Amino acid sequence: MAMTTTMTTWLLDADPALRWQVERDILRAPEHVWRASRERVATEGFGAALLAAQDPDGRWDGGAHFPGDFFGTDEAEQPGQPWTATSWSLNQLREWGVDPAALGDTAERLRRNCRWEYEDMPFWGGEVDVCINAFTLANGAWLGADVSRLVDWFPAHRLDDGGWNCEAEEGDSVRSSFHSTLNAVRGMLSYERLTGDTSLRSTRHAGEEYLLRRQLMFRESTGDVVGDFVTEFVYPGRYRYSALAALDHFREASLTEGTAPDPRIGAAVGLVRTARQTDGTWLQGAPLRGRTWFPVDVAEGEPSRWLTLIGTRVLDWADDQLMRSSETA
Q1: 22, 205, 270, 322: most buried, per Cβ within 10 A?
Q2: What is the DSSP string of 128-157?
Q3: 89 with 291: CB under 8 angstroms?
């Protein structure tokens, strides 16, 4: 589906955190154009507001993965996981394209002042949860922290079926999870892109193979869709798996390595294509419950610029590769 002038105008009329990605990934603007927009993320809109919320000690909301006031209160009365603590805030700033220089000595302040809620472990060493460790690997690479412990951790904790599961360390599961595995491979890919270190590539490929064997959607045992979450697209997705989030990872991996898409992504591509509205947009799903610093996308059921960015670049990539394959056949 060709991008209309109306759609282009709508997408560009957005926060700099989104606009520069539209310019780069959809409009394929010259590098100096999208880089100029990207530089604004730290000083305008979402990025500037989240940077301003940082505590003097380097943390956000007084905690590593949870706000400082989360434990000791009646957690049952809190509406879901809070998304305001340090790991979630760093994830958003990194994904929005904030220059790490804008965070100054944050890596050092977190080394001194931030410890995980799990057994008081040092921040940049990670803990036992694979999703938290994936976020920390990527965020540490972005800010120049020492994440060498985590580089060793991922190969050592991969399960026999090829992926990871956040419940495995507590002995609750020996089978991999779609959510955990996608977070793991995304963290490793971000680490590789930010540092140039390819030592985790084979480990990442094994995790990607776990998802590809299931065509990003299905149970290997029955062939059924693994869960409703596969078809539920929402921004921000935080930790949550969906076919769209998985395809966005495989697109980035393909572009990083210069490889063609694996044909096993076809069913997921079809699902994303079906979810596209007649006007070219994707609709926001049910936002994940929990307190946030501020809203960054529309309410459920409304056309989402973020999902439209991600969906469009995924389909553009898949269609471009299909066209190239047919031309060389």
Answers
A1: 22
A2: S-HHHHHHHHHHHHHHT---HHHHHHHHHT
A3: no
Give ∠ CA 113-114-119 in degrees, rounded to 5. 125
Structure tokens at 199: 């030592």
Token pair 């009329």 in the structure block, residue:
13
Cβ contacts of residue 325 below 8 Å, gap of 6+?
Answer: 260
State the pTM of this model: 0.94
Return d(Cα 253, Cα 89) in angstroms, integer.
Answer: 24
**Count of domains forming the chain:** 1
In a domain, 245, yes or no: yes
Q: What is the pLDDT of residues 278-296, one digit of tens each?
A: 999 999 999 999 999 999 9
- Positive or negative: CA dihedral 160, 161, 162, 164: negative
Beta bridge pairs of residue 71: 73
Checking if the pLDDT of 240 tops 80, the result is yes
Range of the domain at 326: 222-329
**Structure token pair of residue 276:** 């596209």
pLDDT of 48-63, one tens digit each?
A: 999 999 999 999 999 9
Could you tell me if residue 77 is inside a domain? no
- 113-121 long-range contacts, Cβ below 8 Å, gap at least 24? 113/57, 113/58, 113/59, 114/57, 114/58, 114/59, 114/64, 114/86, 115/64, 116/64, 116/65, 117/63, 117/64, 117/65, 117/66, 117/71
